[in-house]
Amino acid sequence: MEAILTQNPKLYDLAILGASGFTGKYVVREALKFLNTHSSPLKTIALAGRNPDKITQSLKWATQSTTTPSLSISIIKADVSDPDSLINLCSKSKLVLNCVGPFRLYGEPVVSACVETGCDYLDICGEPEFMEKMEAFYHEKAVENGSLVISACGFDSIPAEMGYMFNIKQWGSLAAPNKIDAYLNLESKKNIVGNIGTFESAVLGVANSGKLQELRKSRPSRARLVIPGPRPSKGATIEHQSHIELYGVKLPSADSTVVRRTLVTLTENPEGLPGVNESEEDAEKRKKFWAAMKPAHFGVKIASKSPLGLIRFIMAGLFIGLFGKISFGRRLLLKFPSVFTLGWFRKEGPTEEEVNSASFTMWFVGHGYSDVSLASAATKTDTEIITRVMGPEIGYVTTPIVLLQCALVLLSHRNNLPKGGVYPPGIVFGATDLQERLQQNGITFDLVSKSAF
Ligand SMILES: NC(=O)c1ccc[n+]([C@@H]2O[C@H](COP(=O)([O-])OP(=O)(O)OC[C@H]3O[C@@H](n4cnc5c(N)ncnc54)[C@H](OP(=O)(O)O)[C@@H]3O)[C@@H](O)[C@H]2O)c1
């Protein structure tokens, strides 16, 4: 391996694998905004995938031009079923952004090649089993080889991770939350539509849900979160949250498991993760940030202004849950995604107009104690803090923005980040300037209210 590294210095600051995909082409478009601009660490990009002609089409779409691409952009053939092609790509790149999914089918060879070559890795995965499996299989080698592997750097699960931390920051030193519920409200003047790639990942997740439980049972137990107050009750299936005027139903997304992994990693490393070569000043900043962070019970609900608005999500969940477990059912789901999700997912994905007209608001409703000592006296919670994160369409606008900002933080502040390892994004990016960067790029964080009862 050393020989490969010596022969091939890192030619590319960034490689986008799966650049020809529905999401991949939007990621390419976002990356080009930062290529060779003032103070950007992005000077060279490789667009990679199994079909160079399709990648060229993506590039043309992203640049809206028919001219020859800039010299700073290379197109590289890389197929996830050809390990040598991945080793070639990773050994020439500082960082790979993986947009090839479903990750449970295609992700592991990419992680393996990154870890082998000491290349950093980010992806837009929303599949908990894949993330936890990569942590179980590759963490130690990634630490050793100096490869930072971070999944869930898209809408899954950066708004949840950063939104959780933003809510916690509002509690002050004495107060502490017992639970934070996130309510995700999707809006559009047209239709809310997702591409088949995300739908297939969700269907396969349901089909294999037992494997995640098996994996967790097979792993050594990790630190327990110490959360003030009793475990909250489950509550109604459809819940009305009067302060934000929304109805919500549980969303089985990756967000709650990713936030929990960040909180567990924090419990095991109360000062956060030391940077590979950080200054004393940066180390102090990191310690101060994490000292103020607190664990709480966390869950996510999909929300709507009326119970009727939830029907589409409930029906899609029921069909995926019912048919996703058997192979004939899965074939039906994947053949007719639009029918089984009442138009939520389409084989050809959303139109440009549909993408541009959609937006999201994620509300974080925290309940807890004005003084943490009240929790042990079995007193009822007496404080509510509501914050929110807002942004454009989730899958193809917010996801590329978030992924690129994570990439830019990583390329700009590599010394302040761990040498290597497989981690959830919050514990790596929490103490960096990621939140400010997201704000500068159209994803807002604000405090809505603080109430005492
Ligand atoms: N976190 C989030 O919020 C978020 C948002 C959007 C998407 N996603 C996830 O991103 C993934 C992709 O979704 P999508 O809608 O973009 O799917 P898609 O349009 O089907 O794109 C899949 C990409 O994978 C490539 N690919 C497939 N097999 C390959 C192989 N053997 N070697 C190399 N590349 C291969 C495809 O290449 P070809 O073009 O050559 O077929 C294509 O570029 C899904 O898992 C989805 O869940 C997550």
Largest sheet: 7 strands, parallel
Number of domains as seen in the coordinates: 2
Question: For the residues shown, what is the average pLDDT?
Answer: 93
- General form: globular
Radius of gyration: 22 Å
Unreliable residue stretches: 1-7
Spell out which ligands are present: NADP nicotinamide-adenine-dinucleotide phosphate
Structural class computed from helices and strand pairing: alpha/beta
Calculate the terminal CA-CA distance, rounded to whole Å. Answer: 62 Å
Total number of helical segments? Answer: 20
> What's the helical proportion of residues?
40-55%
Q: Give the spatial strand order of the biggest sheet.
A: 3-2-1-4-5-6-15
Number of β-strand runs: 16
User: Which percent range describes the beta-strand content?
Assistant: 15-25%
Organism: Aquilegia coerulea (Rocky mountain columbine)
Pfam families: Sacchrp_dh_NADP (PF03435)
Family: Belongs to the saccharopine dehydrogenase family.
GO cellular component, one term: mitochondrion
